[in-house]
Amino acid sequence: MKIIGDYHTHTKYSHGKGTIEENVVMAIKRGLKEIGIAEHGPRVLFVGVSEKKLHKIADEIENLRTKYKEIKILFNIEANLIDIHGNIDVPPSILPRLDMLLVGFHPNILPTYHYLPLAYNNFLASFSSHNLEKARKLNTMALVNAVNKYKIDIITHPGHRIHIDTGLLAKACANRNTALEINCRQGEKIKDFVEVALKEGVKFYINSDAHKPEDVGNFEEGIEIAKKLNIPKEFIVNSN
Ligand SMILES: [Zn+2]
Ligand SMILES: [Zn+2]
Predict the structure, then answer these.
(1) Which ligand minimizes its atom distance to the CA of 38?
(2) pLDDT at 159
(3) How far is the CA of 40 from the centre of ligand 1 (A)?
(4) d(CA 186, CA 193)
(5) Under CATH, domain 5-235 is a member of which superfamily?
């Protein structure tokens, strides 16, 4: 299996180590046809990227496109869920500039009033199975609402650090043609999630979630999971 594009990579603009250009150069070196810069939306604590900086990233990508014609460079974002209704933190001025919309559920979000029910219930989840079930329901509802509200291309690392009903989320994604991510930084532990999601007919992207240029296009772990679960090639959107 060959993966032709990496749509989820970070840079110095958040907590990554390299520049956009370094990610692009590594993607070319690895033989990729497409590379996406997907920085964190503004609301994630400490590493969120402001609206102003997101525009700067988009401008930088436009310039790099004329310099590196051999690869398609995409301006993506890894947006955050900010409430139970499925709203996300993409500034309205950014939305029309995006090539792809990625959404991830990051628990470390600016604790605004509307985020509190999610923060509170996820905090309680570790104390009893009843609380855990409640958190799982709310988390899933929030993600499904986002999938139905926006045209999301990829849900990043589903189930990472939060409890979700994978089957329900995958069903909603399959209906809306939203893909789930097989994230190469999460390793073996996401195999169970992928296995459950697969049954709902949802499609997947294998992404590196690189936080340094050396990791761009490093798909080994994701490919390993896809092989172990015998995922048909047509279910991996970015394979050829
Ligand atoms: Zn993430
Ligand atoms: Zn990420």
Answers:
(1) 2
(2) 82
(3) 7
(4) 11
(5) Metal-dependent hydrolases (3.20.20.140)
